[in-house]
């Protein structure tokens, strides 16, 4: 539940990324020997626009077995991200432009 699953890029935010966690603990019962048949799908965008509220739903994890949904758990922002000020936004835009032109080096 409090374990960070991934991070999502934040556009126009004070922070450039927000950590993503599961809203609830995820437990599913499957028959012995069927564990390998469980498919887990993560539905999560690669970016979000600030502001982002703590606990805001950003996606979900879905577990299926034999085509049947076993469980779905919301993925939420672990912390809030405020909208960045104009200088932060402009700096990042210019930096990203130079990275695109000259490479990430």
Quick structural overview:
The longest helix has 17 residues. It is built from one helix and six strands. It is α+β, with helices and mostly antiparallel strands and 105 residues long.
Written overview of the protein:
With 105 residues, this protein is an alpha+beta fold. The protein has one domain: Peptidoglycan synthesis regulatory factor (PBP3), Domain 2 (Sandwich), CATH 2.60.410.10. It is 16% helix and 39% strand. It has one helix and six strands. The protein has a six-stranded mixed β-sheet, with no helix packed on it. The chain is elongated, with a radius of gyration of 18 Å. The N and C termini lie far apart (36 Å).
Strand-helix topology:
Layout: E1 6-11, E2 17-22, E3 38-44, E4 47-49, E5 57-65, E6 68-77, H1 86-102
Parallel strand pairs: 1-4
Antiparallel strand pairs: 1-2, 2-6, 3-5, 5-6
Kindly state the percentage of residues in helix. Answer: 10-25%
Question: pLDDT average, as an integer?
Answer: 91
Q: Termini, distance in Å?
A: 36 Å
What gyration radius follows from the Cα positions, in whole Å?
A: 18 Å
Largest sheet: 6 strands, mixed
- Beta-strand percentage? 35-45%
CATH C-level name: Mainly Beta
CATH topology type: Peptidoglycan synthesis regulatory factor (PBP3), Domain 2
The helix-and-strand class reads alpha+beta
Order of helices and strands: EEEEEEH
**Spatial sequence of strands, sheet with the most strands:** 3-5-6-2-1-4
